[in-house]
Amino acid sequence: MNPITLIIIYFTILMGPLVTMLSSNLFIMWIGLEMNLLALVPLMTNKPTTRSTEAATKYFLTQATASMILLFSILINFKQLGSWTFQPETSNIIMTMTFISLAIKLGLAPFHSWLPEVAQGVTLTVNLILLTWQKIAPLSIMSQFYELMNPNLLILSATVSVLIGAWNGLNQTQMRKIMAYSSIAHMGWMISILSYNPSLMILNLLIYITMTISMFVILRAHSFTSITSVSLMWNKMPMATPMMSLILLSTGGLPPLTGFLPKWVIITELTKNSNLMLATVLAMTALINLFFYTRLIYSTSLTTFPTNNNSKMYTHHQPHKMNNIMPPLMITSTMLLPLSPLLL
């Protein structure tokens, strides 16, 4: 792709969520979401293959449907109230339509089925954008109007999301699908706390983005796309093996790593608000998530797979330059729990 075109596309992807977050006008927020959508599709088809074309088509059709529902709800609200923002007088049907459209964009259950398929068909770089940056704009709209949304609908979607993200991640062997189902489960955690404490949702989002970026930096180093390829990391990137293990444990929420912090505070907040059933479901599904993360660690660190080569270590043949952002990402992904009183 032409470098100038690439710069324009990345700039549009960068500006989309910023336009949405900095605006109080619903129509401008919708424009920010469309900037994100239209800029990501060319990136998906940058290296055209059958899988990437299929993934781009699924992504465009799904997101266009969500945008149509959102725009429809915005126009109905403007016709009824004469305002380009949601008011306390906005009907429940309009807010339900808005939540459905944003849930489709986030990949929340039961509107999640497009996300693993799209994630499997695109490159790791596009996957990283899809699972991190693209979540910011819809979540920012939800955090602005969460008081007008039906809390029971939020809790139901969060419960189904964490269950589907945990159970469907168990039988996956492709890293991109595993990270997609992990994203669905994490979105469920964020939505579960939205109606009680939106600041905890933002904290969870920041920590999730940090851990996901750390994971994809390691995966991109040698294009690790499946558990089989990850199992050969021990003789290609020896130093990355313990780093990836720690990031996976942190993503699973094992104390005393950073990933335990959002799960801890979310369960505490739910307990304070007498929502013991949802807190129990979240804690149980966190164990299932931790199981398939541990399975990855077993494949990466605790087994030595046979190779057809005489030389077991390839670091002296293929020198690797770890990304400069990896050390700070590693620290923030694993060692922020002692700062939890300051962060909260």
TrEMBL record:
The chain crosses the membrane at residues 7-33, 59-78, 90-108, 145-166, 203-223, 243-264, 276-298. It catalyses: a ubiquinone + NADH + 5 H(+)(in) = a ubiquinol + NAD(+) + 4 H(+)(out). Pfam families: NADH_dehy_S2_C, Proton_antipo_M. Keywords: Electron transport, Membrane, Mitochondrion, Mitochondrion inner membrane, NAD, Respiratory chain, Translocase, Transmembrane, Transmembrane helix, Transport, Ubiquinone. Its main location: mitochondrion. GO terms for molecular function: NADH dehydrogenase (ubiquinone) activity. Core subunit of respiratory chain NADH dehydrogenase (Complex I) which is composed of 45 different subunits. Interacts with TMEM242. Core subunit of the mitochondrial membrane respiratory chain NADH dehydrogenase (Complex I) which catalyzes electron transfer from NADH through the respiratory chain, using ubiquinone as an electron acceptor. Essential for the catalytic activity and assembly of complex I. This is NADH-ubiquinone oxidoreductase chain 2.
